[in-house]
Amino acid sequence: MAFWIVLLKSLHIVAVIAWMAGLLGLYRLYVQHRAEGEAVAMARFRALERWAWLAVAVPGAWGTVLTGAAIIALLPCGYLPQGWLTLKLILVAGLLAVHLLAGRTRKAFLEPPFPASEAVFRALTVVPAVVTVLAVLLVEFQPPWFAWPGC
User: Fold this and answer.
1) Which parts of the chain have pLDDT scores under 70?
2) What is the count of structural domains for the chain?
C-alpha cells in the first residue's frame, strides 16, 4: 500500500504542476490576446490558447482531482479528519472555478466582442499562483487548527 500512496502523491504533484502551468500560461495568453488587434496574431493566439487548454490545463486538472481523490480513498482516516485538508479542498474548488472561467473565456475569444480587460486577465494570472502556494503550505505544514471527529 505504501508504494501506491507514494506513486499517487508523485503523480498528484506532476498533475498540479501541469495544471498550474496551463492556467498561468492561458491567462498570460489572454492578456496578450486582449492587447492584440491584428487578425493573424489573434488567430495564432487562439491556436495557442486551445493547445494550453486542451493539452495542458484540462489533463492537469483531471489528473490532480483523480489522484487527490485516490489518495483520500486509500487513506480516508489518515486525511479526512484533518482540518487542513478541508481548507485545501476549498482552495481546490476555487482553482476549479478559475479553471472553468478560463475555459469559458477561451470560447469567448473566438468571436468579438472580447471578454474583460487586459487588467482583469493580469489579475487572474496571479490567482492560481497564490492559491497553489497556499495549498502547498497547507500540505507541508499540516497545521493542527482543528480536526473532524471520526475514524
Assistant:
1) none
2) 1
Q: How far is CA 58 from CA 15, 71, 75, 102, 103, in A?
A: 10, 20, 26, 10, 9
Please check whether residue 53 lies inside any domain of the structure: yes
Q: What is the pLDDT of residue 83?
A: 87
For 63, the grid coordinates are 489528473
- 150 within domain boundaries: no
Q: 49 is in which domain, residue-wise?
A: 2-141
DSSP string over 38-78: -HHHHHHHHHHHHHIIIIIIHHHHHHHHHHHHHHHHHSHHH
Structure confidence at residue 81 (pLDDT): 83
What's the whole-model pTM score? 0.90
> Does residue 149 form part of some domain?
no
- Tell whether 148 is covered by a domain: no
127: helix, strand or coil: helix
Q: Count how many residues are written for the chain.
A: 151
Residue 26 is predicted with a pLDDT of 94
Encode burial over 136-151: b for 16+ CB neighbours within 10 A, e otherwise. eebeeeeeeeeeeeee
Task: Determine which helix (DSSP H) or strand (DSSP E) holds 87, and give its type and residue range.
Answer: helix 83-108
